[in-house]
Amino acid sequence: MIVGRHIIAELYGVKEELIAKEEVVRSIVEEVVDKAELTKVGSVYKQFNPHGVTGIVLIAESHVSIHTWPEYGLVNLDIFTCGDTSKVEKAFKLFLEKFKPESYRHYVLDRG
After folding, report:
1. For position 36, which CATH number holds?
2. Which NCBIfam families does this one have?
3. Which of 41, 51, 59, 70 is the most exposed place for a label (fewest CB within 10 A)?
4. Which of 6, 43, 51, 62 is catalytic?
5. Choice among 27, 43, 51, 82 that is catalytic
6. Which long-range contacts does 66-71 make (Cβ < 8 Å, 24+ apart)?
7. Is 62 a catalytic residue?
8. What three-state secondary structure class fits 84?
9. For the segment 5-56, what is each residue's pLDDT rounded down to a tens digit?
């Protein structure tokens, strides 16, 4: 029995201007959540000094979290959805389109 799908990803070579500021990261994450048809319950973002962002979106299906290191061009993503497993795949694809990493690695876990 699979109750959900969980993608854990590291994106490398992401442009600094996409991941240094909370406003930009928030905009991208919120757009992905919306376009992937996930049900947002709430969100919290933290801007680090001098740069870098952590954010988490609580969704009815589970959660989306992001951590950025602009100085390394690095984004760590965690996307977990219960129910329709296609939504996690759609969200991940959208993140790749938005962040345009030079490379990435990811792990897909079927939960349950």
Report:
1. 3.60.90.10
2. SAM_DCase_Bsu
3. 41
4. 62
5. 82
6. 66/25, 66/29, 68/14, 68/19, 68/20, 68/25, 69/19, 70/16, 70/19, 70/20, 71/16
7. yes
8. coil
9. 999 999 999 999 999 999 999 999 999 999 999 999 999 999 999 899 999 9
Residues 48 and 54: beta-carbon distance below 8 Å: yes
**Catalytic annotation present for 6:** no
Residue 82 annotated to the active site:
yes
Instruction: Identify residue 18 by its one-letter amino acid code.
Output: L
Write down the catalytic residue from 27, 43, 67, 86.
Answer: 67
Asked whether the predicted pLDDT for residue 83 surpasses 90, the reply is no
Domain count across the chain: 1
Given the DSSP bridges, would you call strands 62-69 and 74-82 parallel, antiparallel or unpaired?
antiparallel
Q: Provide the residue range defining the domain that includes 102.
A: 4-51+60-111
**What pLDDT is recorded for position 57?**
98
- By residue count, the chain amounts to 112
Say if residues 70 and 51 touch (Cβ distance below 8 Å). yes
